[in-house]
User: Which sequence fits this backbone?
């Protein structure tokens, strides 16, 4: 097995740093995944992931006046004839609740246009829409998310 | 990548031409432009996506917002969307609510 590092970026999880965080992801995906459709879908999923981390970081900033730092790294791992593109995020913001992770909070099979939010408000609609997108693309495009609970770390893997 | 938005008001329709990426950072600009329209009275909205490389879920939400504000019988056309964007729109079920065409001549 060999590993090719593609670098990392470490910034405060804030929309002010959106361009730096997103540009790193886009460039890493471009280097790591040649298939146009897969790279597009991984970009779609990671964009959703980063925006969710920033949204959660904003909540922490408001409630605890604590800055959340987001670190994103990427590498290509070659195993035999195949290879994996691995994108890893790590932050010191809100942890996943282990109880929450065992169940889906929304019906991920329902098309978003017909989705009826469990409560009114654009906020919930945003969250459910994003969840659906990630879920569908993970299933359809051989992408794997590996969450290390209470460790602020999440990996997105895609066949390159 | 920055997003540029060009809005042209016709007699019965509005054409919005987008260029760049519609992502978490830029989608609010599109939403703002859509909010400024009289969507509830619009017969037809045309979104020209020929120069759009990427639409995230935030961008899709803006499109859903527009469709939901428009009269039920009105039409929302997505023009010239890339294969990847059409794939996203189809997978999310949004294709049931909009009309996807390759060029404006198909309208």
Assistant:
């Amino acid at each position: 097995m060999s590993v090719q590092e593609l670098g990392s970026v470490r910034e405060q999880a804030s929309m002010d740093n959106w361009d730096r965080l997103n540009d790193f992801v886009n460039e890493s995906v471009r280097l790591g995944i040649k298939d146009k459709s897969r790279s597009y879908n991984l970009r779609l999923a990671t964009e959703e992931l980063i925006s969710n981390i920033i949204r959660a970081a904003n909540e922490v900033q408001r409630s605890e006046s604590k800055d959340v730092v987001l670190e994103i790294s990427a590498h290509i791992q070659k195993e035999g004839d195949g290879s994996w593109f691995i994108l890893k995020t790590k932050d010191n913001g809100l942890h996943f609740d282990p109880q929450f992770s065992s169940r889906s909070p929304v019906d991920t099979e329902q098309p978003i246009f017909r989705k009826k939010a469990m409560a009114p408000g654009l906020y919930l609609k945003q969250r459910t829409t994003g969840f659906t997108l990630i879920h569908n693309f993970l299933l359809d495009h051989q992408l794997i998310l590996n969450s290390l609970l209470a460790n602020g770390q999440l990996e997105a893997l895609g066949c390159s | 990548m920055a997003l540029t938005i060009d809005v042209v008001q016709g007699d019965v329709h509005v054409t919005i031409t987008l260029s760049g990426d519609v992502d978490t950072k830029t989608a609010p600009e599109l939403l703002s432009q859509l909010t400024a329209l009289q969507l509830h009275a619009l017969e037809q909205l045309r979104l020209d996506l020929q120069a759009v490389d990427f639409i995230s879920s935030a961008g899709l939400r803006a499109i859903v917002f527009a469709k939901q504000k428009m009269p039920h019988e009105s039409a929302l056309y997505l023009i010239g969307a890339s294969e990847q964007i059409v794939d996203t729109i189809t997978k999310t079920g949004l294709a049931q609510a909009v009309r996807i065409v390759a060029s404006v001549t198909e309208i």
User: Anything to note?
Assistant: The beta strands of chain B are 3-9, 13-22, 44-55, 75-79, 99-101.
